[in-house]
Amino acid sequence: MNAARLVRRVSALATRVPPSVPSLALRLALAVPFWKSGVLKWESFPFAVNETAVLLFEAEFRLHLFGSAYAYPWPAATAHLVALAEVALPVLLVLGLGTRFAALALLVMTKMIQLTVPDGWPIHLTWFAMALAILVYGPGRIAFDHLLLRRYA
To answer: How many independent structural domains does the chain possess?
Structure first.
């Protein structure tokens, strides 16, 4: 089999995949790293983030703006809000509920993470691209958003 024929065959197979399948894959792929990070921050959900998470926002994480590094204001409150978002938003993504809102929030979080850890841009770019695709194209048909729109629209 020559290369051109193989490319045509793979292309024909790829066009048979419903758009909802890659949409679901994007939602799951974006949810995983944020969920893992969020779960690591909690000592007892939803009441207390662990001391390490607070210390990271006090001493380690810095916003790199205009050539300088600035500390996050209210590190304990910031740690709690970030940990809550990192647990709640992936759940919304996986369920496909409030999907565009969750994708937008994770897009903003990704930008903040990039400002905090500038050297992590290769993975942050991947998260940004996934969140942007979900925001633009929506959750697909395998989502509660789709069911709600069909029922109430």
So the answer is: 1
